[in-house]
Amino acid sequence: MLFAALTLALVLRSEDGYELWLRYRLEANQARRAEYASFGCMVIAPARPVLNASREELVRALAAISGTGPRASTGVGSAIYIGLRNDAAPIAALVTREEIAQQGPEGFVIRAGEHAGHRVIVIAAASDAGVLHGTFRLIRELQLGRSVAALNLSESPPIGRRMANHWDNPVRTQHVTGASIERGYAGDSFFKWGELPDRIDPRLHDWARLLAAMRLNGVVVNNVNTAKRGLEGWRLITTDYLPKLVAVAAVLRPYGVRLFVSVNFFSPVLVDELPTADPADPAVQRWWRQKAAEIYAAIPDFGGFLVKADSEGEPGPLKYGRTHAEGANVIAAALAPHGGEVHWRAFVYDRANGDRVTQAYTTFAPLDGDFTANASLQIKNGPLDFQVREPVSTLFGAMSKTRQTLELQITQEYTGHDKHVCYLGPMWHEVLGFAPHQGRTVASAISAIAGVMNTGDARNWTGHLLAQANTYAFGELAWTPTRPPEDIAAEWAQLTFGRDRRVIDVVTAILLQSWHAYEDYTGPLGIGFLTRRGDHFTPDPENRAEYHGGDVHGVGVDRTVATGSGYAGQYGEPWRARYESRTQCPEELLLFFHHVPYSHRLKNGRSVLDEIYVRHVAGVESARGFVRDWETLRGRIDDERFEHVRIRLAEQVRHAEDWCRAVNGYFEKLSGVSPLLP
Ligand code: GCU
Description:
By secondary structure, this protein is of the alpha/beta class.
């Protein structure tokens, strides 16, 4: 009895979410605990930075989960050996050279076995980074309470470059008020550039651990907007900032993560007052070469640059009559001798040029073959802008001679900020598995993936605790693009809340319904952009007719080749024909591709208008259901996290009701037809 009470108290210890899913808690199952404890926290590795970090993390996890401290003896016994094949005899004995080679530069093999009469586990890889990835994988097994007696796992990531993109503004100016993170909802930026390099905030180390736990290998630390409206992120590559970058790179290095920064295309002008930034000008080329050399002299493993050019007020090569490829290549050429990369964003549109969703393709597809090998085109998942539902961008797989980076948005700009639960794993999974052209899926077309981060200085990193599931899912899908999002959700729930089956089931169910719920009460059927310009949160259909196409007769935007903007024609078959046809177009995208009369019948027999009404009401009902379901967990989750989520879910219901009223009211007025609802 006393034991039960103690266990409960232990399990329900108040938590603030700071640890994310890296919660290392005492294993409740005694036999399992003993199994873990038999390794005596002996983690043996040569002293190299990444292996030191790996060992430290594994010892920390083992000690907490098994409840034992490190064994005193340094003699041989049961132990975990981590490293390259030649680093330790047990590794060489248990894993062949071929097995390691098969896992590629960043993969790993984890295997349990016997060596010299002792039980051992080895984590073997072709690089220290691979060992680190394997370490976090093994830790997860321990957190999940699985037996390690017969462990035999090998994994390798098909996508070579996996990046977090922070949209943090490093310099505050009088012109920029409010949040220091563009589209960031979880507090302020935690980079504190003013304190660097003298003081390194401890949070930066935990941030580097987080990136490593997500098994990422690159991070962009500043906003893609570097100069517009008074932003000064372009300053990060000035000589003054270099020591600060050096300090950040040093924090990241032991975690196998390379530092990248967003740069302004006009840097030669902004930083050193050159008269031009024309990529064809030899002085400009020299400037980029010198800048790259200066950075690499201080940070030899620097990753490279992310560039938003000729887009939303950020300048670019078009000003000089040069193409995007010519612009990207001048920077890529400067980075190439050092092994650096340019990720060049494809998010370009000009309101004067008609339907914006067509423009990335018409701008970039003709440039296929013009980009150098270390330049990658960074493309958002959809052609519009991170809406709750969009088709997949036509650029993926359309440029076989150009490297491509998929950009996903972890921060919930259009999907409820940090106020609504909206688990994006299922959406990303769909995107990665979709083939816009000739059976070539996005996952197979890309060589890099980037996620716009949802972290800030909020104590729990993400504002809404359940938004951590998105951070987790991004890491998982970047590593294994085919992993089912349901498994990811359930695993995250368990790592975050423990092993109470009911808790896992309820949290997982809420997560898995949340995307569709949000879609229902905001904009079903592929209707785009109903949010207020600026905040991208408040319903504002009145001022968004350009995107939803609503008028007195009908709704939706005609993007067919026959009578519309022609976007459907940018797809390969079968999608071109399907999207072109009103009857074959998947209904969740109907209004993205077609303007239809309100009376248009859907497969369920309802008119489009009734469907809009019904779905909004259903979405609100789902949100109410989340509150009811969450209530059943009272007492099964610590009060602090329980209350935090409860309050957010209640707020979500109120906001969902606002959405329902605003959108249904708007279409009622516009169409003159009232909902046939109870
Ligand atoms: C959206 C977003 C901006 C962002 C831009 C981009 O338009 O609202 O804040 O800068 O995308 O991705 O460049």
